[in-house]
Amino acid sequence: MKLRLQEAALELYLERGYDKTTTGDIAARAGVTERTFFRHFTDKREVFFDGQAELVELLTTAVAAVPPGTRPLPALRAAFHEAVPLIEHHRPVTERRHPVIVATPALQERALAKHAALVTALSDALRARGVADQPAALCAQVGMDTYAIAVQRWAADRGTGLHTHLDQAFTDLRLAANALK
Amino acid sequence: MKLRLQEAALELYLERGYDKTTTGDIAARAGVTERTFFRHFTDKREVFFDGQAELVELLTTAVAAVPPGTRPLPALRAAFHEAVPLIEHHRPVTERRHPVIVATPALQERALAKHAALVTALSDALRARGVADQPAALCAQVGMDTYAIAVQRWAADRGTGLHTHLDQAFTDLRLAANALK
Question: Could you give the CA distance from residue A12 to residue A9 in angstroms, rounded to a whole number?
Fold first, then answer.
């Protein structure tokens, strides 16, 4: 049911635009009542972002499982590698949603808010490993952005796997930061 | 007039909350018509973010003025130092707005969108210096994050100047990234 509503929403956003689509339209296209829509999603933005909870869960669990003594950014890099199968699994739908999100400020803003929530979750996960507040906040932010950049590069270059793009982006980060001496 | 509208908006958001305040309310409190409101701001979110254009201008100009051959992250760090007087000048009003933004998802999302726009502007400024696309995007994102973290630390610790927090945050970035070897 959730998948049918998400497919209906994507079709409508592509056909007539996000702004001109109501939750009632989405429910009708999926062949259900609006009440059913609201049993699955709080609003018409959330239809695109329900995978977030699973990603947060996977990444925070992975950060906790990294061997003790691993420093924060390497710990995050290891956790992102664990998320690769999930990201790859969602790739087809992510790809179809992407142009709609880019074209719709309301969806872009929600995407940024989800990104920010993930940074907070990663920062908490690092602190649970004993990392102090300030480095936890900095590494969570910078690690998350490096991951996002790896995903962007992978979207533009699917010939190279996401694992390789992740390692490359974190290496680029190290080399760029090394110039700060 | 702009300042009066901004002050009126802040008062109303604090008194009754952002959601229960209309642009008409803000105009009335400032003693002007709603039309005057819309001559200055496109919506009731923008009232809090009009300093953005000035910051973008200052930072992109500063990036362009950094000595040739300076690597991307050091170039950004130098540009952020140039922005310190502007940030300090806006500090009193930023401080009063901050709790309202934190408590209001619509304003938080707009703040994140402004942050993202600044990353794009910095990336463009780096590319104008001859930095390739990929490192420009990565350094703009990571540099902007490090700057934002320095500003957060400074908000929590005003005994230390923003210049010092900036240098410290960029040093923390270098040390954290060095563990990625």
Answer: 5
If one looks up domain B51-179 in CATH, what number appears? Answer: 1.10.357.10
Residue B36 in tokens? 């005057």
Give one DSSP letter per residue of A105-150, joined into a string: HHHHHHHHHHHHHHHHHHHHHHHHTT--HHHHHHHHHHHHHHHHHH
CB contacts, 8 Å: A178 with chain B:
174, 177-178
Mean pLDDT on B38-58:
91
* Domain boundary assignment for chain A: 1-48, 51-179
Look up residue B127 and give its two tokens.
């590319």
In terms of CA atoms, which chain A residue is nearest residue B69?
Answer: A179
The 3-state DSSP class for residue A178 equals helix
> What ipTM does this complex have?
0.86
Burial of A106 from C-beta contacts in 10 A (0-12 / 13-18 / 19+): middle
- Give me the torsion for CA of B125, B127, B133, B138, rounded to 10°: -40
Instruction: Give the pTM.
Output: 0.88
> Distance between CA atoms of B80 and B117, rounded to whole angstroms?
16
Query: B1-48 has which CATH code?
Result: 1.10.10.60
Average pLDDT over chain B reads: 94
State whether B142 and A177 contact (CB < 8 Å): yes
